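Section 5: illustrative case.
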């Protein structure tokens, strides 16, 4: 049985990245962060107008109608913009050579193609990239919501892990993101914009090239070939926007990702699961993590509302479920908590009859977490029991641990700043200083 416990597939062509000056100065030349950039790739709030980046076809149509484009032209104009924005990655209306000069001028006067601001980019020694992204401000009191987005390259695929909310209302006890309170849902445009930012950064547009030394798939396919909704937030607490975003990401005339390469992971929002399958037609992943309700009530507290039986019944009813479209059950391995042989056998019993894959995730510790990762031997033994029962049970290779980009480790700077602001307030220091320091402004 092949379990990829510590396989880090590296791009043979990738040149080693430089250790950052800051790290060297701190005497950390052997540390795992090979490159840390604090940078501002694009301006945040768009000067001159709203950005068209991430909009659905209907939203683009409304935007065009708002600047006086005639009803009879709208469909054709939307198709043109769609092509330039989502197929070509255009950053300026002047690139849109088949759009008349006069309309380009009107577009430029009213709108922009500004991306959200990349506050920082971190690159792990295994090629994983994590971006801290600041969304455009929604008003004078909003500095712009911050979320994290992670790119995980392998030789034959590139997976982008996107966020659906800023923070999370759920409080899964093993998850770092769960310690950050919910700030707001992301709009569908903000979800799509994460893919645009990633493709900008790794040069995944026609005529673009990846940054020197970057690890990207070498199989000739797209650099971003898969999307997983496993970043910050519970996607099915933001279902409308997630479904709209999937519509844009999978549109064949633009970003063109296969819906079978898009996976939505839920902690178990049972009432929304059927709708997701029917309307978005994506793959489904379930954050299961425990096989008994008493334990799952603690690890994944939404279980108190929708217990394991209700969750698995909803899985059995998931539209399109078949052996070719199996549900992935995520199971984080917590030492002495959920990793016994009896747990493995119960897992197999519970999933009987559901076309399933079981993804064992070595726990990624984060500062302040109360759990430890199961020993490798225990994980292998657990995996073997599951495998012998006929389920694929890959052990997820920990990726980007050194930059806190691995599963359950995401937590944006907004929250860290808030904590720092609290501390400084307690010490009588003004919060303005925090933002000046924290945001590098
Ligand atoms: S595991 Fe997902 S749903 Fe649970 S707290 Fe973390 S981000 Fe929220």
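Designed sequence:
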């Amino acid at each position: 049985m092949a379990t990829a416990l510590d396989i880090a597939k590296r791009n043979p062509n990738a040149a080693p990245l430089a250790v950052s000056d800051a790290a060297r100065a701190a005497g950390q030349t052997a540390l795992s962060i090979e490159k840390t950039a604090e940078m501002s790739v694009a301006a945040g709030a768009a000067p001159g107008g709203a950005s068209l980046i991430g909009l659905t076809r209907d939203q683009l149509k409304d935007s065009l109608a708002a600047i006086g484009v005639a009803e009879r032209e709208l469909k054709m104009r939307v198709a043109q913009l769609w092509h330039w924005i989502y197929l070509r990655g255009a950053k300026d209306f002047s690139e849109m050579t088949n759009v008349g000069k006069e309309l380009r001028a009107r577009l430029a006067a009213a709108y922009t193609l500004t991306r959200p601001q990349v506050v920082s980019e971190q690159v792990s020694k295994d090629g994983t990239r994590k971006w801290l992204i600041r969304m455009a401000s929604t008003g004078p009191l909003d500095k712009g919501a911050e979320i994290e987005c992670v790119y995980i390259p392998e030789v034959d695929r590139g997976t982008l892990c996107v966020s659906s909310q800023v923070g999370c209302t759920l409080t899964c006890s093993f998850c770092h993101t769960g310690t950050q309170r919910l700030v707001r849902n992301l709009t569908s445009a903000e979800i799509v914009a994460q893919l645009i930012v990633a493709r900008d950064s790794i040069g995944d547009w026609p005529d673009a090239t990846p940054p020197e030394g970057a690890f990207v798939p070498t199989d000739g396919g797209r650099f971003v070939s898969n999307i997983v909704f496993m970043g910050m937030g519970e996607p099915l607490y933001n279902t409308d926007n997630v479904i709209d975003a999937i519509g844009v990401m999978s549109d064949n005339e633009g970003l063109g990702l296969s819906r079978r390469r898009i996976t939505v992971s839920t902690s178990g929002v049972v009432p929304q699961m059927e709708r997701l399958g029917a309307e978005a037609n994506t793959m489904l992943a379930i954050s299961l993590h425990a096989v008994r309700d008493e334990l799952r009530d603690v690890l994944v507290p939404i279980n108190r509302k929708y217990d394991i039986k209700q969750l698995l019944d909803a899985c059995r009813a998931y539209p399109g479920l078949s052996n070719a479209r199996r549900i992935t059950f995520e199971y984080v391995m917590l030492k002495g908590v959920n990793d016994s042989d009896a747990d493995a056998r119960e897992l197999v019993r519970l999933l009987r009859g559901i076309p399933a894959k079981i993804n064992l995730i070595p726990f990624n510790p984060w500062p302040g977490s109360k759990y430890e990762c199961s020993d490798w031997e225990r994980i292998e033994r657990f995996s073997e029991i599951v495998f012998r029962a006929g389920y694929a049970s890959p052990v997820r290779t920990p990726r980007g641990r050194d930059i806190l980009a691995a599963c359950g480790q995401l937590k944006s700077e907004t929250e860290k700043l808030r904590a720092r602001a609290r501390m400084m307030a307690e010490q009588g220091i003004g919060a303005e200083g925090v933002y000046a320091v924290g945001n590098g402004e």
